[in-house]
Design a protein that fits this description.
Layout lengths: L1 H21 L20 E19 L13 E22 L2 E21 L6 E22 L2 E13 L2 E6 L11 E4 L3 E14 L4 E12 L2 E3 L12 E17 L5
Antiparallel strand pairs: 1-2, 1-11, 2-3, 3-4, 4-5, 4-6, 5-8, 6-7, 8-9, 9-11, 10-11
């Protein structure tokens, strides 16, 4: 019995010495779960958007053509249309701390259209106004602040649009579209400025949704009437603006830092 107790004591001592000299278990032998990389806003993205906008079309009688003008000031015709737009965007973001810098280009099909025929003078002459935007695009910079999954940003840049701007004149209302006497047609393409604000939410490391509001104003263009191309004539001055609210969905390539 004493021999057995002595053997157990010796074995226990040897085991304890082995543990002491062996030290703790090496880290490589342990199974350690790797922490998931946090998401950020950096990377390329593509997406789609849709929304509504208000189109403002303005034509100003810059040459005194309108016989009703009695106060010596140019007569201005302004018309509005509210309609939808849908399109897509592509961009890149770079995040440094809480600051996010980005560049984005987008294009949208739009359905802004105004059509109006009004009495142009006291003697019963008529002017027909047609203004429209069929395509609207922007190239913008973005500057935002990120807090966890939310990004609040301001944006601004260059806007461009396509669609006719046309004024026709005729003494007969029924035939005013034929422009028997004179008409004014501006370029279909115009360039302007755009600015706005927005908020974007990161649902996953790759998918984001956003809401933004943008205001675009396009440069004025003054054109001569068709009957006086080589004379002083009676020019018309055209100008457009669009205010829009859009929702968007983006897919970002790359998931985290």
């Amino acid at each position: 019995m004493k021999k057995c107790l002595t053997l157990v004591a010796i074995l226990s001592a040897i085991t304890g010495l082995m543990v002491c000299f062996a030290g703790p278990e090496r880290l490589e032998s342990k199974s350690v779960a790797s922490a998931a990389a946090p998401c950020d806003w950096s990377g390329f993205y593509v997406g789609i958007h849709g929304g509504v906008g208000q189109y403002s079309y303005t034509a100003t009688d810059a040459g005194g053509f309108n016989l009703d003008v009695q106060d010596g000031e140019a007569d201005t015709s302004r018309f509005y249309d509210m309609n939808g737009l849908v399109g897509g965007q592509v961009g890149f973001n770079w995040q440094k701390g809480a600051a996010v810098f980005g560049l984005e280009a987008d294009g949208a099909w739009a359905n802004f259209n105004v059509h109006n025929t009004n009495n142009a003078s006291a003697i019963g002459d008529f002017l027909q106004h047609d203004g429209e935007i069929n395509f609207l695009g922007t190239v913008r910079g973005r500057l935002g602040l990120a807090y966890e999954n939310v990004l609040v940003y301001v944006t601004g840049g260059v806007a461009f649009a396509e669609g006719q701007r046309h004024v026709r004149y005729n003494e007969d209302e029924e035939n005013v579209s034929t422009s028997e006497f004179a008409d004014w047609k501006a370029d279909d393409w115009r360039v302007g400025l755009v600015g706005g604000v927005g908020v974007e939410y990161m649902m996953t490391c790759n998918w984001t949704i956003r809401a933004e509001t943008l205001f675009t104003t396009f440069q004025e263009e003054t054109v001569q009437d068709s009957a006086h191309q080589d004379a002083v004539g009676f020019p018309q001055r055209f100008q457009d603006e669009v205010f829009m609210v859009r929702l968007g969905l983006n897919y970002k390539f790359g998931g985290g830092r």
